[in-house]
Amino acid sequence: MQLSNKQKASLAFAAAAVAGYSYIPSLCGKAKYFSMVGEKDKNLYLTFDDGPSAEYTGKLLDLLKEYDVKASFFVVARSAQAHPDLIKRMKEEGHLIGLHSLEHKSAMVQTPMYTNREFKKSMKIMADLHVDVRYYRPPWGHVNLFTLMNLKKYNLKKVIWHVMAEDWEADTSDEEIQYKLLKRTGKGDVICLHDGRGKSPDAPERTIAALEKTIPIWLEEGYQFKLLDQKHEQ
User: Fold this and answer.
1) Would you say 131 and 167 are in contact if contact means Cβ atoms under 8 Å apart?
2) What are the strands, taking DSSP E only, across 85-210?
């Protein structure tokens, strides 16, 4: 069926509206973060998304404690609410806790009403857990115009990443994750890994196994691990 000029114009307008609502803000935000200049010092910023996980986050915290490494955890508010003991442990062991949405839904498919409600509920949950949230990482790096409004409203700084190792994939291995981490990482990089979710149930197990081998190498190479507030508030 051939579309009329009016129908074509309506479709073009709808596409432009969708792009302006989420796609363009998301793309611009990623581009800006990816273009951040590295640091002179050998600093790395380990960050973890999608937790806390009852099965894996405790194991990850054990590993970080073994090497006295501090990390930044971007937690899903509903998961944090379900596991207050892990949130308490993160705080007690000196890690930074940021927000990774309420239920891990992409901002590209959120209505303005949902986005506003998501931030309100998320911030209430985190306040009830006695966490002063200052950093926000959007799922998949997606934002919409109302995400940006809520970041201002709640005085949150958006954090993306510089390095990923596709640790959520079902067909990867801890060796492949380690290879990508060592190959892709350099001074001042924000590294995004996952202590929950994934395309296979044991995905975070492989991430932890990769870090067990990679953290000692980074330390031997002279890298220091810092929290995001040490990078973003300089």
Assistant:
1) no
2) 96-99, 135-136, 157-158, 163-164, 190-194
